[in-house]
Amino acid sequence: MTGDKRTVFSAVQPSGNLTIGNYLGAIKNFSRFGEEYKTFFCVADLHAITVRQIPAELRKRTYETLALYIACGLSPEKNTIFVQSHVPEHTELAWLLNCYTMFGELSRMTQFKDKSAKHAQNINAGLFTYPALMAADILLYGTDIVPVGLDQKQHLELTRDIAIRFNQTYSDTFTVPEGYISTDTMKIMSLAEPTSKMSKSDENQNAVVYILDTKDDIIRKFKRAVTDSDSVVRYGEDKPGISNLMTIYRAFSGKTLEEIEREFSGRGYGDFKLAVGEAVADGLAPVRDEFARLIADKRYLEDVMKSGAEEAHYYARRMISKVKKKIGFVI
Ligand code: AQP
C-alpha cells in the first residue's frame, strides 16, 4: 500500500524493440489501473544488461520504452514513470534480497535455463540473480499488484517467497504481491514457431510483430505466419498457429473466439491472416502516431524521467531504511 491506495508496479526491459506480446501481455494492462491505485512503471535497464547490449542502442531504447509507455496511455501526471537505474535503491535492495534468496530457487528458474542456453558465451551472475533484482523492484514500493505476462509468473512466485521469508525472519516488512495476468493475452506466441513465446530479442524478424512496425510490415508478417495444413479457423491445442492468431485478433477486434470462427467459416487462411494484420495495424496506429510525436521531444521525456525518479526515490528510500533497520545495520 502507498498511503491508503493499493500499489501497482511493473516494468519492461529496453532489451529490444517492444513487441505486441509486451503490449498485450503487459503494457496495455498498465493503464487499467485508475486513480484509486498508486502506480509505478519503470524501464528496466538494469535487467537488460544481463544480456550484452550495445550502449547506444540501450540508451535509445530506454527513451523509446518510456515514450511507448506514454503513447500506450500512461499519463506521467497520474503514474510514476521512471528508469530503474535512476533509483539506486533497486540495486541496493537487490543485494540485500540476494542474501534471502536460495541458490536452489534461482537454479529452478526456467528463464535462467532458457537464456543461458541462448547466451552460452555469457552466463553471467546477473542473469542468475535476475529474480532477486525483480523482487527488489516490486517489494521496494509495497506493491500489491504486478501486471505481467505468463512468462513472469515463476519470478513473481519467487518474489512472494522472498517477501514471506524476510517477514518471517524479522517481522512484517514487505507486502506480499499478487500477479495480474490477463488470461486472454497472457502468452502471445512467435509467428514462426507458435509453440514458443514471441520475444523482442528473437533474431527472426518475421516471427515478431513490433508495436512500431509499419502497416505494410505488420500485414506482411501475418501473411507469412505459420499455421497448419487444413484451412479451418478454429481455436484448439492442435492448432497453435491459428489459435495464436485468433488470440491476437480477439484482443484487437474485441470479438469473441466464437464470433471469429463464424466470421471465417468456409473462408481460407488468406482472408483470416489479412484481417488479423489489418486489425493489429489499425489498432496500433494511434500508438505509433503518439510515439512519433513524443520521441521527437527528448526534453519532455527527460523531464518525465527526472520527476518519476524523484517520486520513486522518495518511496524507495523509506523502504530501504526500514529493511536495513530490521536486518540490524547501523543507519
Ligand atoms: N509473448 C508475450 N506474451 C505476453 N506477455 C509477454 N511479455 C513478454 N513477452 C510476452 C510480458 O512483457 C513484459 C515485459 O517483458 P520484459 O521486457 O521484462 O522481458 P521478457 O518477459 O523476457 O520479454 P521478452 O519480450 O521476451 O524480452 P527478451 O527477448 O529481452 O527476453 C513482462 O510482463 C512479460 O511477461
Secondary-structure topology with pairs:
Layout (H helix, E strand, L loop, with lengths): L5 E7 L7 H11 L6 E7 L1 H4 L6 H17 L8 E4 L5 H10 L4 H5 L2 H9 L6 H15 L5 E3 L5 H17 L8 E3 L34 H9 L16 H14 L3 H7 L5 H27 L2 H30 L4
Parallel strand pairs: 1-2, 2-3, 4-5
The structure holds adenosine-5'-tetraphosphate.
Structural description of this entry:
With 331 residues, the chain is mostly helical. It is built from 13 helices and 5 strands. It has 2 domains: 7-185 and 297-327, 3-Layer(aba) Sandwich (Rossmann fold); 205-292, Tyrosyl-Transfer RNA Synthetase (Orthogonal Bundle), CATH 1.10.240.10. Helices cover 53% and strands 7% of the residues. The protein has a 3-stranded parallel beta sheet. Strand 4 (145-147), helix 8 and strand 5 (178-180) form a beta-alpha-beta unit.
Summarize, please.
The protein has about 325 residues and is mostly helical. The chain has 13 helices and five strands. It is about 55% helix and about 5% strand.
- Radius of gyration over all CA atoms, rounded: 21 Å
By CATH's scheme, which homologous superfamily of the largest domain applies? Answer: HUPs
Bound molecules: adenosine-5'-tetraphosphate
Secondary structure class reads: mainly alpha
How many distinct beta strands?
A: 5
CATH topology of the largest domain: Rossmann fold
Can you summarize the main beta sheet? 3 strands, parallel
Give me the side-by-side strand order of the main sheet.
Answer: 1-2-3
Question: Between the first and last Cα atoms, what is the distance in angstroms?
Answer: 24 Å
Helix content: 40-55%
Arithmetic mean of pLDDT = 96
CATH architecture of the largest domain: 3-Layer(aba) Sandwich
- Shape by Cα distribution: globular
* Beta-strand percent range: 5-15%
Number of helices: 13
CATH class category of the largest domain: Alpha Beta
Q: In total, how many domains does the architecture comprise?
A: 2
- The helix/strand series, from N terminus to C terminus, equals EHEHHEHHHHEHEHHHHH
